[in-house]
Amino acid sequence: MADALRVEGVAKRFGALTALQDVNLHVGRGEVLGLLGDNGAGKSTLIKVICGFHRPDAGRILVDGIEVVLRSVDHARSLGIDTVYQDLALVNELSVYHNMFLNREHRIGPLLNNRLMRRLAEEHLREMGVDIPDVTVEAAKLSGGQRQAIAVARSVYSAARILLLDEPLAAMGAKEATIILDLVADLKARGDVAIVIIAHNYAQALQVCDRVAILQQGRITFDRPTAETSVAELTDLMVADYRGRRRAAPG
Amino acid sequence: MSVVVDKPRGPALARRAWTGFIRRREASVLVVAIALVVYFQASTPLFLTTDNLRNIAQATAPTAIVAVGIVFLLVSGEIDISVGMVAALAPYLMHYAIDFYGVPAVPAIVLALLIAAGIGLVNGLITTRLKVPSFVTTLGMFYLLYGILLTTSRAYPVAVPASAKGDVQTWLGAGDWASLSWCLLLVVFFHLVLTRTRWGLHTISVGGNILGATEAGIRVNRVKVGNFMLVSTLGAFAGLMEAFRINSIDPNIGGGTRITFTAIAAAVIGGTALAGGSGTVIGALLGMFVLAVLQNGFNLVGVSANPFFLIQGLAILVSMIANQYLSRLRRAGGS
């Protein structure tokens, strides 16, 4: 069976700066790929290429084995590729259920069908194991973990088949991170969503990912199943890269 | 075995009612409005008479209608300070169309409203496409419209055109309760738009988290431009209504910036955040009512009109502080 997402030879330059060069990676349905790398390694650029925000200068992207040219974020979304950004997706002033259905509202004529959206939000969050006692509360009252969980649930509800999570665990405590890790584990168990997680915490990445890939200076330098690596190895690789760059730097 | 479910008893019920009340953004301004009515009625028996209530209604209605539009624009994270000048220009546009081009009254009124919407469109496009802050865009538009108004009218007031008198004039402002009726109709309608429709939800989203709204696929510029058009159209309607009420087309309708600043004050006193993302139409109406009651009440009890602006300034500051405090209470106790 073809991979849900395959990136082949992708390059991206911004003027003189080469952000990505010859990047290859793949992820299948029910698989979680952890994408690791230092700041400036090109992780966010790669995510923006996959979600249709940037056009690659070279290479190709295949969804379910079919090559696609992503024209925009909306186009990528229509193909089932959705991105959840770190704690930025929700509108604080809106209720949980309005956030869940933002721009996909159910209506009766011109009026919002709040009752239906409330019920569907409760059902969907319950199915996904997201514990929100009251979907009518404003998003501002939720914890960081709950907000991120709702953003993920919203993407899944909107039929995302390839989910890109941009540092979903950043600035979260252990308890809050657990909410997201459990959610990702549940999604993995469903088997119909391919997930790419950008992570900084190697231990958390290894806990939930099936494979990890390391992006260094715009290239994938490591891609291996989590069972065949360890936190110590990943740390050594990152440190070695850092020391190598320091030695190579002028002066 | 039966299961007994405890119903909330007296104190619990009262606490729940109190929590529900403070969760409403209009709560503080409603308390102030009631207190002012009680105070002025105790001070003078003239306050709650039909004649005086009509005076308050006529003074409140046009600015409250502008405030409705201002709420939408503030909630979407922008501001329009040219709307008062649109209010002054619209009756002249009607007058030019009728008296210089022979357009019948109703199409002339519609034309004035459409041109006002076009002014809002220009404000919106400059702000969203050219990235000029809306304060600066509409400041420029204010002076531009002022110049057009004074140049074309030569700063002279004119009478309402004969073909616009009669039923049209009565229905659109001259009737005793016409202003208030239009105002209440528009307030109810736009309250529903803001709280119960997709447009309202997207307006809140754009002002609350523009990045999140963009990522959700909302066309944020379209929402902002639409709200610029809305506030200009409502401003023009308020200006026409006022011209019909006073039976004269005057370049000083709205007193230059007065109608704009009073409408913004009403919106802010009513709980609308200048930073965008939250606000209520009902709150703006109550805010306008508070300002009108203050001015009217001072007149009745014989206080000079001079300290009114002092009180208005204090009212804005106190209401902002109260809103901040209530927002914290809402967040702490609401979930």
TrEMBL record, chain A:
Residues covered by the ABC transporter domain: 5-242
Keyword Iron-sulfur: no
Record flagged with keyword Glycoprotein: no
Pfam families: ABC_tran (PF00005)
Keywords: ATP-binding, Nucleotide-binding
GO molecular function per UniProt: ATP binding; ATP hydrolysis activity
InterPro entries with a match to the protein in the record: AAA+_ATPase, ABC_carbohydrate_import_ATPase, ABC_transporter-like_ATP-bd, ABC_transporter-like_CS, P-loop_NTPase
Protein's name in the database: Monosaccharide ABC transporter ATP-binding protein, CUT2 family
Source organism: Asanoa ishikariensis
Automatic annotation (TrEMBL), chain B:
Major place of residence: membrane
Pfam families given in the database record: BPD_transp_2 (PF02653)
InterPro entries named among the record's database cross-references: ABC_transp_permease
Subcellular location: Cell membrane
Keywords assigned by UniProt, alphabetized: Cell membrane, Membrane, Transmembrane, Transmembrane helix
Membrane topology term: Multi-pass membrane protein
Recorded GO MF terms: transmembrane transporter activity
Keyword match Transmembrane helix: yes
Transmembrane segments: 29-50, 56-74, 81-98, 104-126, 138-157, 177-194, 261-294, 300-322
GO CC term (a single one): plasma membrane
Official protein name in the record: Monosaccharide ABC transporter membrane protein, CUT2 family
Originating species: Asanoa ishikariensis
